[in-house]
Every structure is written in C-alpha cells, then in structure tokens.
Design brief:
Blueprint: H1 2-27, H2 43-102, E1 111-118, H3 121-134, H4 136-139, E2 145-152, E3 155-165, H5 168-180, E4 186-189
Antiparallel strand pairs: 1-3, 1-4, 2-3
Helix pairs in contact: 2-5
Length: about 200
C-alpha cells in the first residue's frame, strides 16, 4: 500500500511535470527551415542580378545627366515659346512702322541689315532690283542701301545691306519684319558705301 501511494505520487509528479513542460514548450516559436524574408534563387539568376547591378552602376551617372538635361530643355522650350509669342505680337506692329523708323541721318546710324553677299557687283545690283520688286513697301520711304566690300583671301565679296539704324533693337525689329516676308537677313554694322551701278 505504501508502494501504491508512492507510485501514485510519482505518477502525479510526472504528470504535473509533463503538463508544465508542455505549456512552456508551446510558448516557444516553432523552428522553421526558412525565415519569412528569404527568397531562394538559382545561382544563374544571382549571377544575372549581379551583372545587372554592375551595368546600372556604370550607366546611372549618364542617366542622371540625361534627366537633368531633359529638365533644362523643357525649361528652355517654355522660355522660347514665351519669347516667340512676344515677338509674334511685336512683329505685326513692326511691319507698318519699319520703313519710317529706319531712315536716320548717316552719322547717327550704327546698324544695318545684311540680306546677301555676292562675288560680283552685277549680281549685287540684280539682287537689289529683285528685292525692290519683291518688297516695294520696304523701299517706299527711301530706305538706305549700302554695300560693304570685303576681301577674303584673294576673293572680293560685296555685302548688300539695308537700312541705317541707331540701335540694335530697331535693326532686329526690321530684320524680323523681312523674315516674315521670307527674306533671309541678319543685323550687322552700318557702312556708308553706296552701291555703284555696273556698266
């Protein structure tokens, strides 16, 4: 009977120990073969990823430069559109007043509009006659016509220039009016040499 009592006590203790051990083991995290953030890839995929990363490192500065240039180009395009809209509005008014503004005393003129350059006076006079027929309103107020003779190496050139303008802005406005009439031109300095008719 004493043995039975001890046996029951021993079984009771073992049961209590098993219950306690079971409770504490259930609180522990079950061991897992992989952590949740781990991704398994093949060695070939890893090699390809490393190669892509190296390629990106070499290309990244160039891509950043291109993105910066794209931003600057976008800003420049916006500014050019604004300038173009301003010039278009100003050119409509400039066409009617160009001829009267261009007639200045020769000693006050610093700028002119160059419309052509030729290697002979005959070609220059022919071009001038054609211009007078093409844009008679520009010549209607006796606009100044002058020529600059320029020797470059062994060749002589005759630069046909129109107008005598006090300011660069006046010359630019007149040149823009000519461009509207499909005449190529650019602003240059005024010369007093008049075209001589060819014999």
């Amino acid at each position: 009977m004493v043995i039975k009592k001890e046996f029951i006590n021993t079984l009771f203790c073992i049961g209590v120990l098993l219950v306690i051990t079971g409770c504490t083991s259930s609180k522990k995290a079950p061991p897992s073969s992989t952590t949740p953030n781990t991704v398994l890839i093949s060695s070939e995929d890893l090699k390809a990823l490393k190669q892509s990363a190296n390629e990106w490192k070499t290309v990244e500065p160039k891509v950043n430069d291109l993105l910066e240039l794209e931003g600057q180009l976008s800003k420049l395009t916006t500014r050019l559109k604004a300038i173009d809209e301003t010039n278009t509005a100003g050119t409509n008014n400039a066409q009617t007043t160009t001829a009267t503004e261009s007639i200045l005393k020769s000693d006050q003129a610093f700028f002119a509009i160059q419309v052509a350059a030729f290697n002979s006076k005959t070609k220059l006079n022919t071009a001038l006659a054609n211009l007078k027929r093409k844009i008679p309103t520009f010549f209607s107020n006796n606009i100044a016509v002058n020529v600059e003779t320029k020797v470059i190496k062994t060749n002589t050139f005759y630069r046909l220039k129109l107008g005598a303008y006090k300011t660069n802005k006046q010359a630019t406005t007149a040149c823009e009016a000519l461009k509207q009439q499909k005449i190529n031109c650019f602003v240059t300095y005024y010369t007093r040499e008049k075209p001589q008719p060819t014999l």
